[in-house]
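TA notes, week 10

Several of you asked for a full example with nothing omitted. So below is the full record: structure tokens for the whole chain, then the designed sequence directly under it. When grading your own attempts, check the secondary structure regions first.
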């Protein structure tokens, strides 16, 4: 018999969020063990539900969305996205510059495949949502990780970015608010990143899926709004802000100056055409979501709202554990705490995640799953109710105390 191995191009592809630790958790759950899942940003698991207007729009559209749409998406959905771009000062000129996708994940892979040749480089933040690193690698490119500095509230290190730009660099990725750190980037940092791209004629990629989940009255600045003279690919969707991860409703907008980048953009058009179209019912709800006043999203992150109170709870709980430090998140739904490895005799962050799962039945993602180079971090998705998070933090503290020298 012939042996069939997986394709060599997958050798550098990983997705630690659903890696070995989660696979063991699934086996435990299948055997009846109750696992607290703090590893993934899936609001529906913890009782979050989409706004009434979105659900009603979905029910109404089902009978009329059983066929294919244009490969870019329904016209009225793209018109709604274009209106949203105008609100955010994103220089997207036409509905023809908007592509809907089966979530942003599909569009990330599409754009990297359309852009990268073997050996091309992309600047990717560290830590980062791991799909980005994998998408660059599986497209033949080389992800070059620039440091986000924990001592500076996880903001990108501009000088580190500058040093890592080479003649092979094609673009710079910015994830804002950031996953896994919850950092929100101020305008002055974004302007410096834009200037780097301008100096080196690079494409900007703006993953802004959490732009409507911002705490403490802060404002989100769209990267493309600062770079009308550059090409920016801006990604967004409804999964998190409107609590419909399972609908797979995302989009990308081609913004700014296209000159000299036409071949890349033709590649996006070709690849999106080959998959025919994205989920049509999920496209149809976009106007109901975006044309509202965002009261539902705002309520989640205001004092008294679930996400706000759960962020406060996890910060209180982690703050009570000796040897744990963290930067309080300003956006998204994650926190990325640091463990004092010398205090707790820890050399392998994945092993810590395994121990937490086996001994305390809590599932988290270890820092290496986000391409963080040292074994001293883990990510919590703070989606359970506040009392549950507080109890989880107590159990994390108990596990660490048992390891203390």
């Amino acid at each position: 018999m012939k042996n069939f191995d997986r394709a060599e191009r997958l050798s550098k592809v990983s997705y630690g969020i659903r890696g070995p630790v989660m696979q063991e958790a699934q086996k435990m759950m299948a055997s009846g063990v109750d696992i607290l899942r703090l590893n993934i940003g899936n609001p529906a698991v913890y009782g979050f539900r989409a706004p009434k207007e979105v659900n009603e729009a979905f029910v109404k559209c089902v009978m009329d969305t059983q066929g294919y749409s244009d490969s870019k998406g329904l016209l009225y959905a793209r018109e709604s996205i274009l209106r949203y771009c105008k609100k955010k000062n994103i220089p997207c000129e036409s509905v023809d510059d908007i592509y809907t996708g089966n979530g942003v994940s599909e569009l990330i892979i599409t754009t990297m495949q359309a852009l990268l040749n073997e050996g091309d480089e992309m600047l990717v933040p560290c830590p980062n949502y791991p799909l980005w690193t994998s998408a660059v690698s599986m497209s033949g490119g080389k992800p070059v990780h620039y440091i986000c500095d924990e001592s500076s509230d996880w903001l990108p290190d501009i000088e580190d970015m500058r040093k890592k730009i080479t003649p092979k660099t094609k673009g710079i990725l910015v994830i804002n608010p950031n996953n896994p750190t919850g950092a929100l980037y101020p305008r002055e940092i974004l302007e410096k990143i834009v200037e780097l791209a301008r100096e080196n004629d690079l494409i900007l990629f703006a993953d802004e899926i959490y732009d409507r989940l911002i705490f403490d009255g802060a404002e989100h600045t769209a990267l493309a709004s600062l770079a009308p003279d550059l090409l920016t690919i801006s990604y967004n969707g409804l999964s998190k802000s409107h609590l419909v991860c399972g609908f797979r409703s995302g989009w990308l907008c081609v913004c700014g100056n296209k000159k000299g980048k036409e071949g890349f953009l033709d590649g996006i058009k070709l690849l999106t055409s080959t998959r025919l179209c994205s989920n049509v019912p999920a496209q149809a709800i976009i106007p109901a979501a975006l044309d509202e006043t965002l009261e539902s999203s705002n309520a989640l992150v205001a004092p008294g709202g679930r996400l706000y109170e759960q962020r406060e709870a996890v910060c209180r709980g982690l703050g009570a554990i000796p040897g744990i430090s963290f930067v309080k998140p300003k956006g998204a739904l994650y926190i990325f705490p640091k463990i004092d490895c010398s205090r707790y005799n820890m050399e392998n962050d994945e092993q810590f995640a395994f121990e937490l799962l086996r001994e305390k039945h809590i599932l988290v993602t270890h820092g290496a799953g986000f391409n963080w180079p040292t074994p001293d971090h883990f990510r919590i998705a703070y989606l359970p109710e506040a009392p549950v998070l507080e109890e989880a933090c107590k159990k994390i503290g108990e596990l660490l105390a048992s390891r203390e020298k």
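The chain is about 40% helix and 15% strand. Use that as a sanity check on your answer.
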